[in-house]
């Protein structure tokens, strides 16, 4: 556990260009969420679900990062900024993944476990080396391939092959002739 947490600190130092020292790395906003998650996940796996959930609730209150203790996070995961990141219970995040702020790895339904088969997942699996841009939302039991890039504000609800780049929107040429005139003033 200590080695994993030390590796998390090294990851912040290596991959966050704003970090210039060990002291700054230790003050990285998402590190406490990662540290607590690693402990909470171990407790969750050993059946101490309530304790694990209580730890993650405290971490969320402090960091703004919500990671369910049942979620599996790989090594060298960088959650940059951490603000408003949500990672659901059956999500799996591979090694060397970068997750920016306001990313959601969520489910598409509200049903309880008794409405699904044992072992069936509700949340995404993110392959190693993937990047999830600011505000990206990945919903359901989809697979994001290794080294895929999910752009800022993208909504993903289908599998993404390895190495694929997904963008949220494409800029269109603006034509004033085709836009309706709207006036909000009387």
Automatic annotation (TrEMBL):
Catalytic EC class: transferase
GO biological process, one term: cysteine biosynthetic process from serine
Top-level taxon of origin: Bacteria
Pathway the protein acts in: Amino-acid biosynthesis; L-cysteine biosynthesis; L-cysteine from L-serine: step 1/2
Signal sequence extent: none
Reaction(s) the record says it catalyses: L-serine + acetyl-CoA = O-acetyl-L-serine + CoA
UniProt-listed Enzyme Commission number(s): 2.3.1.30
Key words of the record: Acyltransferase, Amino-acid biosynthesis, Cysteine biosynthesis, Repeat, Transferase
GO molecular function: serine O-acetyltransferase activity
One cellular-component annotation, GO: cytoplasm
Pfam families: Hexapep
Family the entry assigns: Belongs to the transferase hexapeptide repeat family.
Protein's UniProt name: Serine acetyltransferase
Annotated source species: Streptacidiphilus pinicola
């Amino acid at each position: 556990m200590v080695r994993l947490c030390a590796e998390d600190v090294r990851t912040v130092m290596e991959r966050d260009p704003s970090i210039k020292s060990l002291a700054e790395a230790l003050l990285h906003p998402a590190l406490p969420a990662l540290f607590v998650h690693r402990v909470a996940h171990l407790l969750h796996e050993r059946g101490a679900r309530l304790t694990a959930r209580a730890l993650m609730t405290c971490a969320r209150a402090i960091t703004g990062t919500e990671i369910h203790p049942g979620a599996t996070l790989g090594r060298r995961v960088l959650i940059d900024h951490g603000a408003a990141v949500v990672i659901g219970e059956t999500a799996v995040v591979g090694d060397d993944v970068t997750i920016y702020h306001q990313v959601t790895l969520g489910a598409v339904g509200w049903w309880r476990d008794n409405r699904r088969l044992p072992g069936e997942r509700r949340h995404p699996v993110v392959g190693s080396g993937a990047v999830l841009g600011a505000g990206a939302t990945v919903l359901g039991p989809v697979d994001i391939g290794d080294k895929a890039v999910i752009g800022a504000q993208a909504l993903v609800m289908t599998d993404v092959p390895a190495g694929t780049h997904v963008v949220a929107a494409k800029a269109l040429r603006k034509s004033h002739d085709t836009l309706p005139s709207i006036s909000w003033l009387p």
